[in-house]
Design brief:
Number of strands of chain C: 0
Chains: A mainly alpha, B mainly alpha, C mainly alpha
Structural class of chain C: mainly alpha
Number of helices of chain C: 12
Strand content of chain A: under 5%
Number of strands of chain A: 0
Shape of chain C: globular
CATH topology of chain A: Helix Hairpins
Largest sheet of chain A: none
Oligomer: heterotrimer
Chain lengths: ~110, ~170, ~300
């Protein structure tokens, strides 16, 4: 480990990694579409922490670092919109959004 | 251990803790609100990293998003109140391992990579907002506009997918 | 020190709103009525529903009060009397006020009662209607000030108040803030005749007192925000020599009175109707407002 590296950066990156791990667990283990989306949100949140930490501790002079975070927020919003649209369509057609029952999507 | 490191760690822990609560509670409403507080703690973490605009924006955006999440949870879950304590997970072992492995891998990268010198100076909050605005409407304008168009497309597509199909002979 | 002064002022303002609301709804001016009502609330038994979600049930009213106070933290009453002059103040008000929704959802879900739950979800529908109309007019205001600092926003109105400069934005923001504070005619979620009190229906005693106090503080905060964004804040009319704080006070009280009075003459609006109105007329108008302000700022600086 480089002794000159700041403690704050490591802490922030660890928090981001933990959020990512929790998100991966959630996205893989849940059977409900909405819960899976929650896992994906957590994964994106982990990515956002890393982006902010990199911006703040490595390149504070580049505003593009902050812009990336805005893009991730956009991605979150899009993911929600499209995900819920699919959930509604699925619920209309089949009466549930359980992913175990979605094997009928297999051709 | 500086005050900043302490606050980053504290809010980071809070965020991760609420993130875990999301998948450990049976009540869907609690689950959604826990995710909201996880994201809010993240916003507070941004604030303690002196990214003021992003922190406030995160706190604001996520409150709306997660509240909308909450209503969908309650709409689509079989047991939104969580009174039946039904199990809604599968392949638990695999997911635990996958989550843990990705966590360890990311931490290993964070610790063992030489990140180079840490910047000591950074723009203050007002300057950051100005810089970000100029960045968005100057150098990165195309990217930002693309994001805007993508959102618009997603909105239209989502509405088109979700809208009630009109039955034949039912068009008044 | 500033924090303490502003908190006391908020309490005074909330008391004034309570007196005014009492006056408008009952037709009698009673200066002591809110005090007696508060004492009565504290003395009454607190009924607890049979199977509450304990956490949400307790946190809901407190969060409502807290978010209203947080929003007030960036509102300047005089050039110096402000708790914290954040560089993103205009955005921070939004961020704090969104938590009103979270508080109402929690308070609605917590008691495990049908009426209160429907009330909470109704407020979510209302949020989708008004949220854009809060953010977009504030964007136009910030465009004119070229800053998100609330003090800077007030200073930018030295020559011409924003109510004259962008009347469209003022009207939209005024309507949206009434919807945010669930004042009549947008009070479907707590209306007595509608849902037996909606979100409030399962609360009693101390908790109801905190909920009502939170709402009163929310109203006064929104009135203060309207004054800061559109009515020139602490700046007075030329020729009348009053200190800045007096101007702020007078304007805030007038806006509060207007908010309460208007609701009395309009029938209640269902959140679905509000939703379609806001998205079909409100948002295009808000965009038009941003466009007009942009042209004005660029062409006649």
């Amino acid at each position: 480990m480089n002794p000159e590296i700041s403690m704050e950066l490591i802490i922030a990156l660890t928090a981001g990694a933990a959020l990512f791990g929790v998100g991966v667990y959630g996205a893989l283990s849940q059977t409900n579409l909405v819960m899976i989306m929650m896992g994906v949100e957590l994964i994106l949140a982990g990515a956002m922490v890393n982006l902010v930490a990199f911006w703040r501790y490595l390149h504070p002079d580049v505003a593009a670092g902050q812009m990336f975070v805005l893009i991730v927020m956009t991605v979150m919003a899009i993911e929600m919109a499209v995900g819920f649209a699919i959930a509604i369509a699925r619920f209309r057609a089949k009466g549930s959004v359980e992913m175990e029952e979605a094997v009928d999507l297999k051709g | 251990m500086t005050a900043q490191a302490f606050f980053i760690g504290f809010f980071g822990l809070a965020s991760v803790w609420f993130g875990i609560v999301v998948f450990r509670t049976y009540s869907m409403m609690r689950s959604a609100i826990a995710l909201l507080f996880s994201q809010t703690a993240l916003g507070a973490m941004f604030l303690s990293m002196q990214a003021e605009f992003l922190g406030v924006l995160q706190i604001m955006m996520m409150a709306t998003e997660m509240s909308i999440m909450a209503i969908f949870m309650v709409m689509f879950m079989m047991d939104p109140g969580g009174l039946g304590e039904m199990d809604m997970t599968h392949q638990k072992r695999l997911s635990l391992i996958a989550g843990f492995v990705s966590f360890v891998a990311a931490v290993a990268v964070a610790v063992f990579v030489d990140w180079g010198p840490v910047a000591t100076t950074f723009p203050d909050a007002a300057q950051q907002t100005v810089d970000l605005g100029l960045e968005l409407l100057d150098r990165s304008m195309l990217i930002f506009e693309t994001a805007g168009i993508t959102i618009l497309t997603a909105m239209i597509a989502a509405t088109a997918v979700a809208i009630q199909p009109v039955k034949k002979g039912d068009d008044k | 020190m500033n924090t303490l002064i502003i908190l006391v002022l908020l309490l005074l303002g909330a008391y004034f709103v309570a007196v005014l609301e009492n006056w408008i709804s009952k037709g009698r001016f009673q200066l002591g009525a809110p005090l007696f009502a508060a004492v009565a609330f504290l003395g009454r038994e607190s009924f607890i529903p049979r199977k509450p979600d304990q956490l949400f049930y307790e946190v809901g009213p407190v969060l409502l009060l807290l978010s209203a106070i947080l929003a007030a933290a960036v509102i300047p009453l005089t050039p110096d009397l402000i708790i914290t002059d954040l560089a993103t103040g205009a955005l921070f008000i939004n961020a704090a006020l969104v938590y009103v929704l979270v508080a109402l959802l929690m308070a609605g879900w917590g008691p495990d009662g049908a009426y209160s739950m429907i009330g909470g979800w109704r407020f979510l529908g209302q949020l989708i209607a008004y949220a854009m109309l809060i953010v977009m007019p504030i964007t136009a205001v910030a465009m004119r000030a070229e800053s998100l600092l609330t003090t800077q926003i007030v200073v930018s109105q030295a020559e011409l108040w924003n109510i004259v400069y962008q009347p469209l934005g003022f009207v939209l923001f005024f309507i949206a803030s009434m919807a945010l504070a669930f004042l009549p005619p947008f009070d479907m979620m707590i209306a007595k005749g509608e849902l037996a009190g909606g979100v409030e229906s399962e609360y009693s005693g101390m908790r109801l007192a905190i909920f009502r106090l939170g709402r009163l503080v929310l109203i006064i905060t929104l009135a203060a925000a309207t004054v800061v964004f559109y009515l020139g804040g602490w700046q007075g009319l030329p020729g009348i020599g009053l200190p800045p704080w007096a101007w702020s006070a007078i304007k805030i009280l007038l806006v509060t009175a207007a908010m309460l009075l208007i609701g009395r003459y309009i029938p209640r609006i269902r959140e679905a109707h509000l939703l379609s109105w806001c998205w079909i007329f409100g948002i295009p108008l808000a965009l038009l407002n941003i466009f007009i302000v942009g042209v004005l700022v660029l062409e006649f600086p």
